[in-house]
Amino acid sequence: MELPKTDLHKDHNLKYKDSYVLNSTADLDPLMERIGDASCVMLGEASHGTHEYYSWRTAITKRLILEKGFSFIAVEGDWPDCYRVNRYIKGFADKDKTSTEILQNFRRWPTWMWANWEIDALVNWLKAYNLDKAVNNRIGFYGLDVYSLWESMEAMETYLRKNDPGAASIVHEAMRCFEAYEKDEEKYARAQYFGDSSCRNEVIRLLTEVRKKTPVYDHDPEAALNIEQNAFIAVNAEKYYSNMVGFGENTWNLRDQHMMDTLFRLTQFHGPDSKAIVWEHNTHIGDARYTDMALHGMHNTGQLARQQFGESSTVLVGFGSYQGSVIAGAQWDAPMEIMEMPAAREGSVEHQLHKESAENKLLIFDSEQESGQDQWSRKKLHRAIGVVYDPKHEKRGNYVPTVLSRRYDAFLYLDQTTALHPMHLKPDGSQMPETYPFTF
Known about the structure:
Elements: H1 8-12, E1 18-21, H2 29-35, E2 40-43, H3 51-68, E3 72-75, H4 79-89, H5 99-103, H6 117-130, E4 140-143, H7 149-163, H8 165-178, H9 185-193, H10 200-213, H11 223-242, H12 251-270, E5 276-279, H13 282-285, H14 301-309, E6 314-329, E7 336-341, H15 349-356, E8 361-364, E9 380-383, E10 399-402, H16 404-407, E11 410-417
Parallel strand pairs: 2-5, 2-6, 3-4, 3-5, 6-11
Antiparallel strand pairs: 1-8, 6-7, 8-11, 9-10
Protein name: Erythromycin esterase family protein
InterPro entries: Emycin_Estase, Hydrolase/PRTase-associated, UCP036794_erythomycin
GO biological process, one term: response to antibiotic
């Protein structure tokens, strides 16, 4: 059922395709209609520490699973940690543990991205949903990121020591090569810059061996997928860290290409009718061609997904907010803080939407619009907050010039937002904090 449009069109003469007030999950109906039969839906966020981004993405994710038969969720997280969640929600492992114990395994900074009460609620819902489903119909949860070099090699060695000692010895050789760097990616990066011998041959040999052997890792529904993905991570992480220092290949592109390759591998594993839900920051899911990232030769997963799956099969959903609080760190590896997020800069997307009204809004864009016919077809500043944040820099940074109606297919504007609820900060009282502003 189509919901009534807001008065924004009348009051402000806006010409983008559709705008709707956004108060409850029922107000997502126009988005479900826009998604249609798409097989890949990417859900963004303008920060990694905002409660409402997680809760609204959860609401959309549930509807995609229940109403449109989506197969799995892939997130901007490390594969080994997310795979542990995947095994848990599918009932394959850790049956004696709680969801909270599983999420406590996310130890890499920023831990709050996935070890939070909002994700805990989603994990419990997924586990309950999967309970009476056949093994091949259970919803999966996977990590797309490239950072877990050490963890992926350790996971491979643990598995292969029991199931393929020959391949395990190759993993051990690769791990021994990296031992001198004490699990410190920056040490390895600096060593490569100054011409130290690399470990690239060792990880490539490891991947080659694992790919030859994957047909024999068939005693578990996902063993071959897991071992092969960890081997790909070893190769791509080594390449990523080798290029961290100096003037080599763009590490942003290496990372996003890895995430896109992982997503494609997951769709292949789940079969030709599989449907993917992706959770990443706006800077990854919003098509880079419609930002100034393109001027610097950067691409991202949203752009690559549109190019690989086709624009009709891919729906990119951005998120943004005007003002509130957020979890972030003052610098990399710093303690997490609840920070005040000031009002959006004048002239930005978020400032314009707040000026129109202080209501939460859902914008649906028409890809067939003529260029320049409305304000969202022209480049505007669009807020982007990372895990490292300084509110004092709002006037100089934290914004990406964006053509909103082409960067995304839809946009959720949330006027006032609040900080995420990390597990590693003791919540008020003895109960889990409320994770949704509405019921589902």
